[in-house]
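can u do me a favor
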């Protein structure tokens, strides 16, 4: 190696910039007028009860193809405080520069951590997390509200706080009426049908987050997804890829929750996500049959199941559209018909508890 190259390498090594990181983009289509941003709004570091340093969370988010994260340290629970004494703003401040370098949108947040009711809540878009450190939970929520925070109820079905049934308390009604609750986690470790229904009934934003404490790669839930590794996340349909764009979309309830193979959200968004993931082409037509080629160019999987339909149209009972798969689907025409409606539901797109997205394709 030449002397100059040696010197450059030595400089790079000491500067700590010889780092190779691969970003695995998550391919989920945009919606008309909106970018689909992949976000995790519930993450811990050593500044509360997590086990990693804040910049590591940025690296993980970059590797996993996320657009935005929030480090939501517990205000009231800091088991490492003998070793780490700091402002509640500190984990954000430490991660800020790393996030800027990696083009990850970092949102200043905190977890208000109280017994039930009202339980735990995350406040996003804070300007000063320290002001949430108040003895009465109402004062903490009010402090967040004064900063125009977006506040959501975390893991309402957490069995440590609601061991038998997932209840909505009077305290939640009070928070909602005071403008201190804008959304609920529909997924956090588990899917909560109660949270899903409350979001629909009370017009609240649906969120799904990892609530990760350990290094993300050792997340057992993620590892169990054989070969399909993505953390639980909130898809945000934003006008622009910015912190302000995310805030506007969250307040307008333009989200979907993505966990395992499942998407949870309002029918209008899931319908468009499904449609925009697929390219459908009619490649053959005779009197007896129509052949379609369906290309799923997204990372999403779609499980289709036939619903009530015209029996003269004969097609699959169940069918799976694999990610990035090219599928040939044949529909047989009976009784002399030349057109009709293929009717099915997409069983892993949930528009309400126990209710899948219905879809019609006309041939
Ligand atoms: Zn919590
Ligand atoms: Zn948490």
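np, heres the sequence
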């Amino acid at each position: 190696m030449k002397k100059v190259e040696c010197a450059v390498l030595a400089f790079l090594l000491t500067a700590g910039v010889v780092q190779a990181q691969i970003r695995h983009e998550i391919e989920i289509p945009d919606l008309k007028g909106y970018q689909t941003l992949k976000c995790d709004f519930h993450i811990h570091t050593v500044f509360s009860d997590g086990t990693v340093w804040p910049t590591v969370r940025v690296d993980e988010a970059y590797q996993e193809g996320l657009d935005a994260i929030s480090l939501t340290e517990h205000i009231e629970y800091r088991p490492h405080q003998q070793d780490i004494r700091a402002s509640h703003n500190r984990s954000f401040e430490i991660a800020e520069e790393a996030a800027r370098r990696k083009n990850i949108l970092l949102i200043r947040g905190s977890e208000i951590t109280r017994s039930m009711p009202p339980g735990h809540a995350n406040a996003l878009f804070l300007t000063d997390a320290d002001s949430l450190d108040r003895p009465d939970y109402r004062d903490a929520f009010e402090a967040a509200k004064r900063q125009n925070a977006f506040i959501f109820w975390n893991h309402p079905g957490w069995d440590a706080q609601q061991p038998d049934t997932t209840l909505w308390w009077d305290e939640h009604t009070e928070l909602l009426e005071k403008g201190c609750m804008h959304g609920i986690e529909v997924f956090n470790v588990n899917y909560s049908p109660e949270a899903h229904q409350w979001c629909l009934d009370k017009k609240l934003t649906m969120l799904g987050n990892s609530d990760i404490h350990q290094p993300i790669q050792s997340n057992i839930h993620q590892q169990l997804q054989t070969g399909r590794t993505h953390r639980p996340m909130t898809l945000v349909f934003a006008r622009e890829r910015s912190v302000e764009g995310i805030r506007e979309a969250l307040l307008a309830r333009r989200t979907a929750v993505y966990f395992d193979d499942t998407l949870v959200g309002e029918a209008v968004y899931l319908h468009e996500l499904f449609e925009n993931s697929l390219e459908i082409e009619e490649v053959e037509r005779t009197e007896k049959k129509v052949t379609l080629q369906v290309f799923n160019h997204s990372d999403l999987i779609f499980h289709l199941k036939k619903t009530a339909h015209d029996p003269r149209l004969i097609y699959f009972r169940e069918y799976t559209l694999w990610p990035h798969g090219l599928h040939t689907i044949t529909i047989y025409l009976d009784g002399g018909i030349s057109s009709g409606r293929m009717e099915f539901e997409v069983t892993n797109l949930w528009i309400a508890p126990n209710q899948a997205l219905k879809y019609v394709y006309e041939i």
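The mean pLDDT is 93. hope that helps!!
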